[in-house]
Amino acid sequence: MDELFEVVVIGGGHAGCEAASASARLGARTAMITINLDLIGQMSCNPAIGGIAKGHLVREIDALGGIMGRVIDRTGIQFRLLNRSRGPAVQSPRAQADRSLYRKEMRATLEATPNLQLRQGMVVDIITKGSTVIGVEMQDGRRIGARAIVVATGTFLNGLIHTGRRQYSAGRAGEPASQELAAALRRLGFKVGRLKTGTPPRIDGRTIDWDRFEPQPPDESPVPFSFSTDRLEQKQLNCYIGYTTERVHDTILANLSESPLYSGKIRGVGPRYCPSIEDKVVKFRDKNRHQLFLEPEGHATNEVYLNGFSTSLPAELQRELVQMIPGLAEARIIRPGYAIEYDFVDPRELRPDLQTQAIKGLFHAGQINGTTGYEEAACQGLLAGINAALSVSGRAAFRLERSESYIGVLATDLISHGVDEPYRMFTSRSEHRLALRHDNADERLRPLGRELGLVGDSDWERFHSRRSRICRVKGALQRQIRRSDKEYAAIAGHLGVSDLGDSITLEGVSKRPGAPRSLIEALLPEQIKSEVTAADVDSALADALYSGYLKAQAVNRGRLERHDSLRVPIDLAFGSLSGLSHEMVERLERARPRTFGEAKRIPGLTAAALSTLLVSISAAAGAKAGG
Amino acid sequence: MSTIVAPATTVGRSAVGIIRLSGPDSLSIARGLIGADFEPQHRSVVFRALRDPKSNELLDRALVTYFRAPNSFTGEDVVEISCHGSPIVIRQIIDFTIYLGADFAEPGEFTLRALANGKMNLSQAEAIRDLVEARSKSAAQQAVRQLSGELSSALAPLKERLLESIVVLESALEFEEDDLPPVQIDDVRARLELVRSGVEKLAATFSAGHLLSSGLKAAIVGRPNVGKSSIFNALVGLDRAIVTELPGTTRDCIAEQISVGEIPISLTDTAGLRAAYDPIETLGIERTRAAMADADIVILVLDGSCELTSEDEETLRSVSNSTRAVVINKADLPSYRNPMVGRAGRIQQGIKVSALTGEGLDEVRTAILAPFEVTTSDGAGLLVTNARHHELLSRATSLVRSSVALLGIESEEIVLVGLHDALRLLGEITGETTAEDILSKIFGTFCIGK
Hints:
heterodimer, A: alpha+beta, six-stranded antiparallel beta sheet, 20 helices, 24 strands, 37% helix, B: alpha/beta, six-stranded mixed beta sheet
């Protein structure tokens, strides 16, 4: 071997960066190998981080000690909190990034990380001894030893770009695909499938008639992603909203045969929630216009990202179509849009720590597992990097439950169900939506990050201060305002009612429809008012808002979960249970659950298998009781 | 996966007994009894000799039916042997199938495999049990309806509408940045109201449905010698209870099934209530009290040919808070009068009955059903007969109701908690889950894609 490391991360994208950073900070000697060092942290399409549910993921990554949140806070140019009109549990931060600043900041962060080495080159093989990894082989002949490897190759595995009738091998526009590594994974016996995604054209901002578009300004009081951020540094700017026209749609429909999607040339399955403009026009013909967003890619560049116009139509046709859009009559395309298909490996072959079951020490993270989105990739990178480092130091694996984080939901969904289209996070994927808020990610995950060793002292102190401030606000919310108190009338007036009962707590006031945060803040004791931030008050109010509903939900769940403590007989031969498939029997035998509750958590057990198990252990319990 | 065997008919002497084999080795086990050249067509019935696999001794000649997987009851290969209904023959055949590798089936195992292979849903499996256990024609009819999926069909449009409402609310909160039409709260509310009333109506049929399947318990009580057993016998239509002139004849409770209208009724004759003189009678009286407590309706019998005694008064008092029918027996006697006239106290009426002549018995039958408001036999309605279903429907109703109350007041994610739970409860009736369907519906309905 030319060099020896404990952990090697293949890929410098969002998953790779999180994995490399976490692994190194946990004390493992780590190397991140990427095809092009200048493109570390590159955003492949939309220059934005966050969004509904995705913003939750980023805050969870930050709470655990990951880096995405800090990097976007330093490079974001338009911050918005989504769903402001809705409940706090479904509010989620989003930010447009200065694409090149994001890359630079990410690289700088990694270069400042102890224990972490960066290497440029293409990995062409995974070297194993028996069924354990021992290293990687590079295209230029170098062999790098590793005890754990994280594969975070994004869309590069057998990547194939389609634009119109042309197709060519690439991992991303202008970058080579990784073909030998893809072949190596197939050789190792993994189940490989094909997915696809797409990207829209980038337009020269100087050729846009900006007055024709509706501005979408940034938030006045932006919410940062990282719990460590005090202030946002970057000057903010607007995005702009526009629309396609029927003429655009008709032209697309007339030229569908030019679209590789519709001519059948693309094999991979694409996501339903980021469809190409061709898809939108075909599936929703009655819509006479589709929304577009013009997203400037940075202060120091002319490039503008045309969000909502993902396409793989021929480049010349793209120019024609773009110029039909009101406001873009003179627009010039700097980079055309394209579709890309790539290999992914069935994530059902992974353990909850993202290590493959077949090969010891081999971890898969990011798009290779069938997900889409930078945030989805990053949280897998974090999980895999943590576990790679833990595995080489002989510590127990780290896993997250569905009940405590969206990261847990994502990991367990992938492992239990696999993917039949690129997996993206939605709040509806979690049964614990009310409890998993973006603002309580620290409460849920900081302690875990600290225990792992990823959360430093100053962040830990900040966390404690914030939590104790929130506690003080919650205490203050219990203050009773009686009819005789002078504030009573003012509050009633504010809320537009005449009667609030004989007395009402501040908490009660906050739950009234239309009660603004400012009203509650004004009623807090002076001492607390001076110490706490608006964010602290928001978190306290959110806890109060949902606590009743969470309690009721727990009661309901309790009834649904009443079987959880039913014991599984020690000597129960799962193979003898009627109706269990071979695969289910294997999973049960491997996990050896002692109670039904434990069985429910076995990744990959189907509902039918659980029912079968429940029927037989209930019968056994009944028989014992009946005598 | 094992191959299971069990008799499909009750074991007793009859003309035909059916033995069922299900599993991957069904055919090869059958060959062990019939011969290695047995190659039946799917869904064929053939007449074959069954022989002892060791000695080749003839066991029986039987009709053998073969169903090839997946087109069978369980979804596996199924062989049904219709042999002569001799318990000995059936036993032997089963023993040999076990010798050839079959396992004796657990109770319900065939149905479990059918469920596991998706040949039926949970409520249909329950319907099979209900059909087998039905004690009245209507109960059987309801079970058949449930078995043919009528309950699932009645639920389907309700679940669909609930799902649509969920989709609208989920889309609004998940895709705020997409150009979706704004949520029309009134539309959503109206739709959910339809769901609530539909589910509530279905749940309400349970009171009638429950009666149809489980029936009523009626206990005949009264002091010794008022004619309880005679009335019992008259209602049952048999000389089931021993009747003598001596008071205290009935020492024990006897129960018999009758049906009134379509409702099965478990009628219990009891020991007369009085201070007893011997231990057997004391025990009998304890049992009477138990039967009274257990009963859905108490039939109190009085002797119309004499004055109310203190024991009568005491019994009248003890049933004054219960569901009851008061019968004044012995209308055939010249000294018959209505001892209730002028009586102080809650109970003022009674039915004039003679167990001897049959007078008034029809009125008694009607009176037994009257408190239960059973509007049976309109034939058209699907009735929920299963307590599990009723509980799920009731809980779903109140969840939808409370969610609707929050519409427009609380943010969608709170409203959705109750709606998701309601959908899950409705799914539990047939044993389905609908997790991924919501996303599919959203993408089918709305153009999402930023």
